[in-house]
Amino acid sequence: MTEIEPKKETEAESEECSRPFLPNHIIEEIGVVFLITGIIFIAAALRRPEPFGFPNIFFVGVLEMIDFVSPLFGALVVFAVVILLLAMPFLDKSEEKHPRKRLIFFAIILALVAFWAAFTVMGFI
Amino acid sequence: MAKESSKGISAVLVPVSKIFTKARDWILARSGLEYFMKETEEKTVPKHALNPAYCLGGVTLVAFLILALTGFFLANYYEPSEGGAQRSIQIISTELPFGFYAKSIHSWAANVMVIAVLLHTLRVFITGSYKNPRELTWMGGVILLVFTFLFVLTGYVLPMDERSDFAITSMSGAFGWLRAIPHVGGAFNWASDTVGEALTGSYWMHVTVLPIAIILFLLFHFYLIRKHGISGPL
User: With an 8 Å Cβ cutoff, is A118 touching chain B?
Assistant: First the structure.
């Protein structure tokens, strides 16, 4: 059962909080905002609208997987992955945060990424 | 002479600045934002918050805001009908001043948003940041990730070009069965395999349902980030 009371930050984590939000952090954040906006605006001016060509790299893998199994089963796999991600905090309840100490869950995510990458490659062949 | 004119200027500026200060204090006191402002002035953030890996959520937000602005602009000229979609895209691309540029920025920002949100999710997972007390922040984030993909897919339908066929095939293949649900099936017209239905359904989702849903979940996400703070490094 998940604890009701939220966990308090440890002292080591609290000591990290030493930068004032105003004005130091916010000025640097605004710098990042300008940087990202600049990259998007310059990229849009230099290249055609579809940056990664067609078909879109993000969806080829999912479509290929749906083709490989069946539409209904494919949709169920998509739903299952979303449910798995939603449930992750309740499955991985240990205090450990480092991936090396959470090998099972890290392996599950690596497997998902590997399947997605494999179906994406299959989609482009 | 110069001294006299500077005195004249300050005679005007000082009362004006006093009026502004008084107005600001009144707004803060009446709205309850006084507490929020005081809290913000005293707020500190972890040193690692400016590490690029921890900025990916912010990058996603910037891309979303650019998408909203260019989306407002494009929606003024877009016609969501089978015959009008391609024609309006043609007008935006060739005749409207900065139309092609706005369309290009919209497309680039969408790609930046998807890449940033995927990397953000991966970073949160790798650093175990979804653990107590940030479970709800993670769950809201996963829903936002789903909304982002739906945003992109419904956006692909709108130009009525080769990408639209791809998006309609994907959505109807994966989610078309949702339309068979009694009473609420009509809400899933975006997953129809009929071009006209898919176009109007996708447009409705893209400019109404998803923006409202994403803004609500973003506000919830930010509230939780403010409540629990940025997670610690590994």
Answer: no
Report the residue from B59, B103, B114 with minimal CB separation from A36: B59
pLDDT tens profile B117-169 = 999 999 999 999 999 899 999 999 999 999 999 998 899 899 888 778 878 88
Element (H, E) at A83: helix A71-91
Q: What's this model's pTM, rounded to 2 decimal places?
A: 0.86
pLDDT tens-digit readout, B162-184: 778 878 887 887 788 888 888 88
CB pairs < 8 Å spanning A and B: 169
Q: What is the 3-class SS of B185-233, one letter each residue?
A: HHHHHHHCCCHHHHHHHHHHHHHHHHHHHHHHHHHHHHHHHHHHCCCCC
B37, B92, B135, B228: best mutation site toward chain A, by most A Cβ within 10 Å? B135
CATH T-level topology, domain B48-228: Cytochrome Bc1 Complex; Chain C (1.20.810)
